[in-house]
C-alpha cells in the first residue's frame, strides 16, 4: 500500500477507563496536542479530548491505535471540516 493511501474502515472504538485512560482506534492523524487538549483526525471525524495532564502514551500508525492518559474531562466529535495542510505527526516524521 503506498504511503499516501489511508485505510478507511469506518469503524472506531473509543474506550475510556476510569476517566484516566483512553484508547481510540481508527486514528488517522494527531492534529495538535498539549496537556489540556488533544485534537485527532479519525476515520469518523475530528475527535477532541479535553482534560488536564494529558499525555500521548502510544500512537501506532500501522493499526491506527492511540492511547492517552491523564485526567480526561470530555470527548467530543466535531463535524466541522478542518482547514489544515498536514497534521502534527505528519510534520514530525518528514
Structure description:
The protein has 94 residues and is mainly beta. The protein has one domain (14-92): Immunoglobulin-like (Sandwich). The chain is built from one helix and six strands. The chain has one helix at residues 88-92, and strands at 14-17, 21-24, 27-33, 37-42, 45-60, 65-78. A six-stranded antiparallel sheet has the order 1-2-6-5-4-3. It is globular, with a radius of gyration of 13 Å.
Key terms:
mainly beta, six-stranded antiparallel β-sheet
In terms of per-residue confidence, which ranges show pLDDT below 50 for 5 or more consecutive residues?
Answer: none
| Structural class label | mainly beta
Percent range for helical residues?
under 10%
The fold-level CATH name is: Immunoglobulin-like
Tally of domains: 1
Radius of gyration: 13 Å
CATH class: Mainly Beta
What best-fitting shape do the alpha-carbon axes yield? globular
Q: In what order do the strands lie side by side in the largest sheet?
A: 1-2-6-5-4-3
Summarize the structure.
With 94 residues, the protein is mostly beta strands. It has one helix at residues 88-92, and strands at residues 14-17, 21-24, 27-33, 37-42, 45-60, 65-78. The protein has a single domain, classed as Immunoglobulin-like (Sandwich).
Strand and helix map with partners:
Elements: E1 14-17, E2 21-24, E3 27-33, E4 37-42, E5 45-60, E6 65-78, H1 88-92
Antiparallel strand pairs: 1-2, 2-6, 3-4, 4-5, 5-6
